[in-house]
Amino acid sequence: MHVLAVAVTYNPDIDLLARVLESVAPQVQGLVVVDNGSANAEDVRRLTLASSAQFIDIQHNSGIAAAQNRGLALAKERGFGHILLLDQDTILAPKTVSDLAENLKALEAEQGGVAAIGPAYYELNSQQQTRAYQTNGLRLYRISLEGEKHPVASDFIIASASLIPLTVLEKVGGFREDLFIDLVDVEWCFRARAAGYRSFLSPTAVVDHRLGSGTVRLGPRRVAVHVPVRNYYWVRNALWLARQPYTPLAWRLYFLSRCLGFLGTYTTFADRKAQRLRLMTRGIRDGLASRLGPLDP
Question: What contacts 277, CB < 8 A, 6 or more positions away?
Answer without folding.
Answer: 263, 266, 267
